[in-house]
Every structure is written in C-alpha cells, then in structure tokens.
Amino acid sequence: MTKDRLPKSHPRLRLPHQPNLVIAVVVFVSGFLAIKYNFPTVAGCTTLAGSLFGAGAAFIGAWVADRNRMTTEESERSKHQEAAIKFLAPELARIAGRLVHILDRATVNFSVESVKLGNPQLAVIGTNDSAVTFKVPQPILFPSAPAFRDLATEDATMLVNFYDSLREISGAVEDWSEGKIPWDVNAFNVLMHMARQSAQLGTIAVNRFCPEIQYSPLMPASGKLIERLQKSITHVDDVLKIHIDRLNKK
Q1: I want to staple 185 with a disulfide (CB 3.0 to 4.6 A). Which of 100, 113, 131, 204 is the partner?
Q2: pLDDT per residue over 47-97, tens digit each?
Q3: CB-neighbour burial class of residue 31 (10 A; exposed 0-12, middle 13-18, buried 19+)
Q4: Which residues of 40-78 are buried (b: 16+ CB within 10 A; e: fewer)?
Q5: What pTM was estimated for this model as a whole?
C-alpha cells in the first residue's frame, strides 16, 4: 500500500532542517525527565535540570536568530528577483512585440504561397516581404546583465528558452537570405512553425515578466502584448486548417 506523501510544509519535514530547535527540544525533555526520575539523585536532579533548561534556552535563541537571518535573506532575495524582472521586462516586451510582426508576416506569406499551389496563373502574386521583414532582434541585456543572475531559476529558464528559439529563427532566415533555400510554401511553413513555437515560449515569459504591458503604447486599442501573441498563434492554427482543407480538395 502506497503511503500519501507529506507536503513540504509539514512539521515532520521541516524539523530535521532546524537542528537548533531539535536539540532544544531534546534538552528540555531531558530536563523534565531528570526531575521526574530524580536523576542522578534527588538533590542533584534540579541542578541538572536547571543546566539543561539553560542550554535549551540558548539553543532556542540560536534557532530564533537563524530564523530571522533566513527570513531577512529570503526577503532580500525576493527584492532582487523582482527588481531583475522589472529591469529585463522592457527588452523582453520589445523583442516579443517584434516576434508578433514576424509571425504574422510569415503566416500571411504561407497563406499566399498555399493559394498559389497548383495555380500557375497566380504565380505573380506576392507580398514583397524580404529577409529584413523576418530579421529577429537579439537581446542586449540577456544574459550579460548582472540582473539576469538575480532571477529565480524558473524565470531565468523562461528567458533562455525564448531567446534560444529566436536564434534558431535567425539561422533559418540567414540561410534563406543567402539563397540556400527558396522562399516557397515549404520555407514559409517552416518559418511560421518556428515563429509559432517562439511565440508560445514568449507568451510564457511575458505572462511572468510583463503580463499587463501593451502591445503598442502608441495604440492602446491594440490590446496587451500577451493577447496579441495568443491571437497570432491562433491565426496560425486557422491558416493551417484552411491549407490542409484546400489540399484535401485537390
């Protein structure tokens, strides 16, 4: 039979990590036992118990000091983490906002190329987008800024995953711009999926670092950045469905 696991906050799990408190409890209990059983003698038990109680009080004092120190350190750590988030958020928002544009343009180009499949008469149709359209800005503060080292591990991982995905997009766009791969429906399909994956990772990071920031401060009606990311992701799904339906009809 499997036993239920105790929550991390359960006293039985916290106690081993507080040695001063554990020793204090043992010492106090020993003092009471000395009095109860007149150890080592009737006359000497009170003296021994007094010594034990004094030692127990000292351990309690050490435990309180440790608790206060850990509380202070945790408070300072939290302040540094929140300050780091505020410091790195604008750069994240700027790059994520640019990614929205890249994903939207990749989706439009994929949709156009999809319509042209099997329709030679539509070959002249295009969007006139170039490699510059899909150029991904790279972070300046990440990862060299001292603030990055103040982030909690989970927060730092969010940024690492997001910015790494952007480098993959940059590499693909560079190959296409050098003529190694033609700008056709397959290329835009790959680019769109890569940008979609980055947008998903960007949504996670934005939700943590700057969930309330606007997509464009100059156009409040454009909504929040996180909403625009989600909208662009949904648009990709809709376009892919239309593309598959079109292929199935041929």
Answers
A1: 113
A2: 887 887 888 788 888 787 788 778 777 778 889 999 999 999 999 999 999
A3: buried
A4: eeeeebeebbeebbebbeebbeebeeeeeeeeeeeeeee
A5: 0.73
What would the two tokens of residue 137 be?
């800005």
Token pair for 15: 């106690």
Residue 6: the pLDDT is: 46
Kindly state the tokens that stand for 200: 């998903």
Residues, the chain, total? 250
Distance separating alpha carbons of residues 172 and 146, to the nearest angstrom: 30
Cα-to-chain-centroid distance, residue 101: 22
Angle between helices 42-116 and 153-177 (to 10 degrees): 20
- Evaluated on CA atoms 35, 36, 40, 43, the torsion sign reads positive
CB atoms within 10 A of CB 174: 12
- Going from the C-alpha of 8 to that of each of 5, 17, 78, 223, the distances in angstroms are 9, 12, 20, 40
Average pLDDT, the chain: 85
Token pair listed for 164: 């790494």
Positive or negative torsion for Cα 130, 131, 132, 137: positive
Handedness of CA 47, 51, 52, 56 (dihedral sign): positive
